[in-house]
Amino acid sequence: MTDTLDDGYEISHDRARIDAARVHRWLSDDAYWARGRPREKQDVAIDGSLNFGVYDGTSGEQVAYARVVTDHATFAWLCDVYVDPAVRGKGLGTRLVAAVRDHLEPLGIRRILLATRDAHGVYAQVGFEPLPGPDQWMVLYFDQSLRPGVPADSR
User: Fold this and answer.
1) pLDDT tens digits for the chain (155 residues)?
2) What is the pTM of this model?
3) FRET partner for 2 with CA separation of 20 to 30 A, picked from 51, 99, 127, 140?
4) Architecture field, domain 2-130
């Protein structure tokens, strides 16, 4: 699947187009949730996931990324959504998330979850809402630094 947007950007879920080195640099250097993630760990995550990229239609350069962990039938977790700072403010993040939603909906997936500290407005524009009944959900931390209250810089 490749969709060309009206401003010349393309959104694709073709794994072969993902610039894994760029994605790793973005996430490990700049994303609070993945800072310091080793390249090998990122490559395994990419290989085990459904990946989406946004590309400049002229240069072909990747300018945004999103990853989905899913069984392609009942559940999906949207993660690692990142837009290059040079193209932020153009609505690419919202359009990327909408493309992910639109790709997953026909599969019959019942819910897509995500976690965000600061981008609720982006996700709300495409239908995400706060988790109802958060008391129904649980988490197991193998990495204790991810527990709430631990400073983000130590993650």
Assistant:
1) 666 666 889 999 999 999 999 999 999 999 999 999 999 999 999 999 999 999 999 999 999 999 999 999 999 999 999 999 999 999 999 999 999 999 999 999 999 999 999 999 999 999 999 999 889 999 998 988 878 876 655 44
2) 0.90
3) 127
4) 3-Layer(aba) Sandwich (3.40)
**CA-wise closest residue to 63 among 88, 34, 38, 100:** 88
Nearest CA among 1, 7, 12, 6 for reference residue 96: 12
Cβ partners under 8 Å of residue 94, min gap 6 = 122, 125, 126
Residue 25 has, within 13 A of its CA and on its CB side, a CA count of: 10
